[in-house]
Structures are given as structure tokens and as C-alpha cells.
Design goal:
Shape: globular
Number of helices: 5
CATH superfamily: Bifunctional nuclease domain
CATH architecture: Roll
Order of helices and strands: EEEEHHEEEHEHH
Strand content: 25-35%
Largest sheet: 8 strands, mixed
Helix content: 25-40%
Low-confidence stretches: none
Structural class: alpha+beta
Distance between the termini: 32 Å
Strand order of the largest sheet: 1-7-6-5-8-2-3-4
Number of strands: 8
């Protein structure tokens, strides 16, 4: 994986691969214990969910786009979208690509001048950008497996309980950010 200030050029790869699971945003909520925002991603083909804890500002950027709230001036993710468009680039997909030391990593896949460019990103930023581009969000299958295994450990039994609770939430439970 490239460092946060580098991009990598690839051959075209717009759709998700077999190693990726397409997800949608199920909702945005607050962790009842830590009061930290959680983006809840849900597999489009099953009930599997992946909670990703994010920062307050990133959650706000996601919420603004989920609610289609206009702001008087461009917010950071709007600026990134405008910048990409101004450079004739397009975001094709985002992928939550790795889970390492309880930290998720993501990659933004863009097309520019016929070449595919990948950018390392925080998942919250990648998701906020994906919403603005209306492009798919994927999670690497290995990330889903690793998050299940991490949740299955004795010291993180609360994570597995949280996962089961998230999978069983109804629309009213998700609050105002439900999709």
C-alpha cells in the first residue's frame, strides 16, 4: 500500500473483483458506549454488516451528503470532487481494502486520461467521496473475514454482540440517517 501522499496508476478496473463485496451504507449512528459515530455498511446481497467507527467531522460530511444538505461553501469532500472533475477525472469506486491493528484502510479508484489511479484514503473520506460521486463501495472479503475473527476473540466479545445487534436493527433504530 502506498503512503498517504502517493497515487498509483493501474490498468482499468472499474467493477468490483471477486475478492470484493459490494456494500451500501445502512446508516450512520452513535456508539452508545463511546459516543463516537459509526458508519454501518451492509452487504447488498446479504444481511452481513460492517461497522466502521469514524471521527465526528467525517461523520458530519457523510451525514450532509446522506441528507442531501447544501452548504453555502464547498466542504472538503465537495472540494475534492470539484478538483477531480476540474482535472477531468472520475471516481469509479472505493474499497475498504485492509484491516490492520484495528484500523481500516481504503483505496479510492479513479479514472484519469484513460488510466486508473488509486489513492490511499481513510474509509470515512472514501465513503464521503463515494456518496458525492454516487459510485459503489466495496469491502475486501479478507477484511470482512478479519473483522469477524477479531470480533470472535474472547477479549472482543462485545464487538460480536455489537455486530449481531447491528444486523438486527430496524429502520427506526437507525435514526435519521437510515438509507
Amino acid at each position: 500500500m502506498k503512503s498517504h501522499d502517493q497515487a498509483e496508476v493501474h490498468q482499468p478496473a472499474d467493477a468490483g473483483s471477486e475478492s470484493e463485496v459490494e456494500m451500501q451504507i445502512r446508516g450512520l449512528m452513535t456508539d452508545p458506549i463511546t459516543n463516537m459515530p459509526i458508519v454501518v455498511l451492509k452487504d447488498v446481497a446479504s444481511d452481513m454488516v460492517l461497522p466502521i467507527w469514524v471521527g465526528i467531522f467525517e461523520a458530519n460530511a457523510i451525514a450532509l451528503e446522506l441528507e442531501k444538505t447544501a452548504t453555502p461553501r464547498p466542504m472538503t469532500h465537495d472540494l475534492l470532487q470539484n478538483l477531480a472533475r476540474g482535472l477531468n477525472a472520475q471516481v469509479n469506486k472505493v474499497v475498504v481494502s485492509e484491516l490492520r491493528d484495528d484500523t481500516f484502510y481504503a483505496v479510492i479508484w479513479m479514472n484519469h486520461a484513460g488510466e486508473t489511479v488509486t489513492l490511499d484514503a481513510r474509509p470515512s473520506d472514501a465513503i464521503a467521496l463515494a456518496l458525492r460521486w454516487d459510485c459503489p463501495i466495496y469491502v475486501n472479503r479478507q477484511v470482512l473475514e478479519n473483522s469477524k475473527q477479531a470480533a470472535g476473540g474472547a477479549q472482543t466479545i462485545n464487538a460480536e454482540e455489537m455486530r449481531r445487534w447491528l444486523e438486527n436493527l430496524n429502520d427506526d433504530d437507525m435514526g435519521r440517517y437510515k438509507m
